[in-house]
Specification:
The chain is an alpha/beta fold and 325 residues long. It is built from eleven helices and ten strands. Helix 5 links the parallel strand 5 and strand 6. Keywords: Signal.
Length: 325
Amino acid sequence: MKSAAILVTSALAATASFAQDRSDWPGSFTVATASQGGTYFAYGSGWANLVADELGLSGGAEITGGPGQNMALVHTGEAAFGMTTMGPAAEAVAGESPIAPGLQMTNACAMFPMYQTPFSVTALTSSGISSIADIPAGARIGFGPAGSTSDTYFPRMMETLGVDFERRNGSWTDLGGQLQDGLIDVIAFAAGVPVPAVSQLEVQTDVNIIEFTEEEQATILEAFPVSEFAITADTYTTLEADARSVSMWNFAIANCDLPASMVNAVVDVIMSDNERMVNIHRAAASTVPENWDKNAGVLPWHPGAAQWFIDNAGAEIPEDQIHAQ
């Protein structure tokens, strides 16, 4: 196994609890992300490359079906790291994931908070659709990759709001192209903002970024595990004011069997320099130590990650919420 000649200073000083012995570290790693054109892929590729560079490891991102599949890949060890949304994560831990019904994915551990995933709706301006109520019966709505957070929750939300639709799946990039070509009518995004596919659409055509009404937002808040969110006006050139939305938190995850010293060093690389992360993706403005509590007991903490937040963020993580290695 090759060792890095130099460890980034912050990783060296992470904690006294984890020495610099890297003899049990894997020589390479994979970060399970999602489809190209979405925030997960852009964000995940960025932090995978950052960690690989700083820790002298071979690593990179893998295109996947999103949070549900990522839980399975990390649980089984097929991917060392991944990213998930707390709704699909809770279902996976309980053995209720549509990816593998009955399998309790308890070997995927919380590593660090990422950002909130807003749920937003986009249509071409030429369609005349400027509100949820404008979506015609039988509209073809793209919900992202099958099994993704968007595909899991957004159809249910639309049904709850009384929308009649035909369901379409695909990568965000593909769906953006289909919207522009008139093959679908609406895209229902659940992704960190700005969504690359939406930003690309804005350059190429006129779009409507559709917010929820106060009544629609209240209905969704009551029915789903989400929080209030506003997509700020400066997120997209199309927006002239903040857009009312709802959101769900995302966490990076690690296979629970990975060495504590390795996960501690990875977390230190990510959490010790937020400006570097924001340069990867603007959504990383929320990737800060004080958001450690957004896990809220959904996932067991990896001991290496838990130690970092205890030492550096004053986190009070109960011992029974830390995975025992």
